[in-house]
Amino acid sequence: MVKEYPVTTLQPESVELNTSYPATIKGRQDIEIRPNVSGFITQLCVDEGATVHKGQLLFVIDPVQYEEAVKVAEANVATAQLTADNKAELAKKNIISDYDKQMAFNTLATQKAALAQAKAQLINAKQNLSYTKVVSPSNGVVGTIPLRVGSLVSPGSVTPLTTVSDNSEMFAYFSLNEKQILELAREHGANNLVQNLPEVQLKLSDGTLYNQKGKIATISGIIDQSTGTSNLRAAFPNPDQLLRSGNTGDILVPIKLDSAILVPQAATYEMQDKRFVYIVQDDSTVKNTEIKILNVNDGKNFVVTSGLKAGDRIVLEGAGTLKDGAQIKPISPEEAAAKLKAMTQTQTAGKNK
């Protein structure tokens, strides 16, 4: 008895596929927070992972020595100002000799210089005092805080106090090889390539798709000779703060094919690293045929690049049970589905008796 097999006739179809590229994700701006003065940390004003705004207080460094420096500088300014004023008054009233008057003028010039220096020292002291309050330079999220209260820090410290990441927009960095760059240029035009590229998607590490689409913002103009690749950066909005610096994922770049020959993956079988389908010939015998496929697919179908053409009939199911030259009875996919449904209902009814 000739066995029935579902058969379909191939027709060109339009399909959109996604090529996937591993990506690393970083915030729009990752700013290392470093002290401008030396001292002991006396207060932590935020915790790791906190959302902060520009100008918000992050750390306090012991201000005592800098407060004292301000007081000394202020006293030096006052003393220098008083001395300069006194010498000027003496010279003005002519109550000293010409020699003493000239000496007074010389001393006045010296004291004015001292006054200028004292004022500069005061400005510097006040600036250093302000640096004891470390504030956030931008809106963002606080990273790891490796140093705690009591730790001694300085401008030369290797380890930053923390990092503030501006995560309002996230950058996904990935690479394409020379061939892939050329394919994109041919498909979308080499001139203004970045502007012409379609929106991309981001597959997260848990396999889900990020709910915001992104846009490729930059393509490096240089092919790295050591890797043979060019670096790209895609930008994604991050309104819900779901993405964080250090995340990983895959960038999905869409490819649109207008007249593609698709075959269901279930209709194929693999042997010795080659992929085959069974073509149904006019006499209803089958012939195993090797096909070439694209290295990207939608998870259900393969895109055939050679081995099949429009109008060919192929066996949809049961390819693993067939042999080359076998006789079959072709039926439509709808007939096969109806017979399977009827068989299932019959089996269910039998079990319920």
Biggest sheet details: 12 strands, antiparallel
The overall pLDDT average reads 87
Distance between the termini: 31 Å
Helical fraction equals 25-40%
Radius of gyration: 38 Å
Counting H and I runs of at least 4 residues, what is the number of helices?
5
Number of strands: 19
The helix-and-strand class reads alpha+beta
Percentage beta strand: 35-45%
Given as residue ranges, the uncertain stretches (5+ residues, pLDDT < 50) are none
Secondary-structure element order, N to C:
EEEEEHHEEEEHHEEEEEEEEEEH
Rough shape? Answer: elongated
- Identify the quaternary structure here: single chain
Structural overview:
This protein is of the alpha+beta class. The chain has helices spanning 64-93, 98-131, 178-188, 193-196, 333-352, and strands spanning 4-9, 13-33, 39-44, 51-52, 57-61, 133-135, 140-142, 152-153, 162-177, 201-204, 215-219, 229-237, 248-264, 269-271, 274-280, 286-293, 301-306, 313-315, 329-331. The strands form 3 sheets. Strands 2, 4, 7, 9, 10, 11, 12, 13, 14, 15, 16 and 17 form a 12-stranded antiparallel sheet that branches. A 4-stranded antiparallel sheet has the order 6-5-3-8. The mean pLDDT is 87.
What can be said about this structure in brief?
The protein has helices at 64-93, 98-131, 178-188, 193-196, 333-352; strands at residues 4-9, 13-33, 39-44, 51-52, 57-61, 133-135, 140-142, 152-153, 162-177, 201-204, 215-219, 229-237, 248-264, 269-271, 274-280, 286-293, 301-306, 313-315, 329-331. By secondary structure, the protein is α+β, with helices and mostly antiparallel strands.
